[in-house]
Amino acid sequence: MSAMRGAAAYGRGASAYARVGVESGVMSASPHQLIVMLFDGAIAAIRTARIHLEAGNTAEKGKAISKAMDIINNGLLAALDAEKGGEIAERLASLYDYTTRLLLAANLRNDVESLNQAEAILEDIASAWKEIGGPTAAQG
Description:
The chain has about 140 residues and is an all-alpha fold. The protein is about 90% helix and about 0% strand. The protein has helices at about 5-30, 30-55, 60-80, 80-110, 110-130, 135-140. It is globular.
């Protein structure tokens, strides 16, 4: 087996292993922990986008920003319960909408500051979310 094929096979194996780990974590997570995982995923995608933006890798930057937006819109925003959450859910929905608009601006204008603002907003909400979950949520 050539070194290139070996590296590709290793990459596929490592990727499959990571997926199993993530799937196992999701299957055993509480609803609170799932939200923490969504925040972590969105923040990680924004950080990845920043790296690609700074490296001039437009396609990968766009993919990472799209991933962050997908997590926000189809994960965090979709998880809100307007009936039970009332005003808090309404304000979070507004923050998620604003964060998505920041990410769009970052993508269109290659604007690092918009990425920074989006990340800061999500980190603030995530830290509050982790605090209300108690010590185990903050650690995990």
